[in-house]
Amino acid sequence: MRLQQHQLEWTLRPLPADPDAAPRCTVNSTATAFVLSTGGFTGNPFHDYTDVLIPAFISAHRFGGEVQFLVSSYKSWWTSRYLQIFQRLSRYDVVDIDNDDEVRCYGSVVVGPTFHKELGVDASRAGSASMVDFRAMLRGAFGLERAAAEPSGDRWDIRRRPRLLIISRRGSRAFLNERAMADMAMSLGYDVRVGEPDVSTDVSKFARLVNSADVMVGVHGAGLTNMLFLPAGAVLIQVVPYGGLEWLARGTFKEPAADMQIHYLEYMIQLDETTLSEQYPRDDPVLKDPYSIHKQGWNALKTVYLDKQNVRPHLGRLKNTFLEALKLLPHGHTTG
């Protein structure tokens, strides 16, 4: 069995006909073994969930905890980061199978998780499993209190004010007027929070922050994967960078939103809202004909439109989007 680049190659061999020729078991287990790899693009939250965690859930949830994960290309920091998820799916310790000296014997083995689609589960293929089930599992794993974006019945409760979470970025695709965006949102009645997740972020702590939000806004990128922790009925606003990236933005976050029972809005960055307009002349193909850059391949597209671009949304246009989000929230989220 050949796994994707940066992952080890495994070979499956049948036992010899003579049972005495097989190595003796040093560990016997009644659980099902589940072999998976955390190589590839892990470390990027979108790929952590799309390539490993959601597929692992699809394959493992039916065992009711009677499954043991044998992880190849094991990274201790990565496994620790998502340990609560593995503990929710399994009653057994995660094994670094590449460096394990035991001869482990199981009644059955699952080799590799089942992938359905980006950031999603095809419920028609997975039996009773769905993204609703996966998100319920996440709430249990990380101790998230809000299953739905229901308003408080107490008129003095600050939670009567809808909370807006701005996903902040540095380096590329950053909001250059983030403070002004927050001030404008507060003038509409939002309780505003700003979060900047990175590889060192405590997943549980950040998940609780996201779960407290009613609306989350951010520029297209891995940080929007945190939509997984939003309560049902919340709103995701994806700010799509300039450069004909609608197909990318919608495939990664718009389409998964419906299965998560999350409302989805887009804010398309225009030419006068991107720093690319300061880097290139007006008649440059980067600005005039983005699809000519797309034709040069993923690396060219990524370098220009994802790595070199920051944004400054028009507050007037963005205000309309924030107001639209308010209308989508459950009845009772008023600003008066």
UniProtKB/TrEMBL annotation:
Residues 135-237 form the Glycosyltransferase 61 catalytic domain. Pathway: Glycan metabolism. It is a single-pass type II membrane protein. The keyword Lipoprotein does not apply. InterPro entries: Glyco_transf_61_cat, Glycosyltransferase_61. One of its GO terms (cellular component) is Golgi membrane. It is found in: Golgi apparatus membrane. Keywords: Glycoprotein, Glycosyltransferase, Golgi apparatus, Transferase. Coiled coil: none annotated. GO terms for molecular function: pentosyltransferase activity. Pfam families: Glyco_transf_61 (PF04577). Its main location: Golgi. This is Glycosyltransferase 61 catalytic domain-containing protein. It comes from Leersia perrieri. The lineage of its organism: Eukaryota, Viridiplantae, Streptophyta, Embryophyta, Tracheophyta.
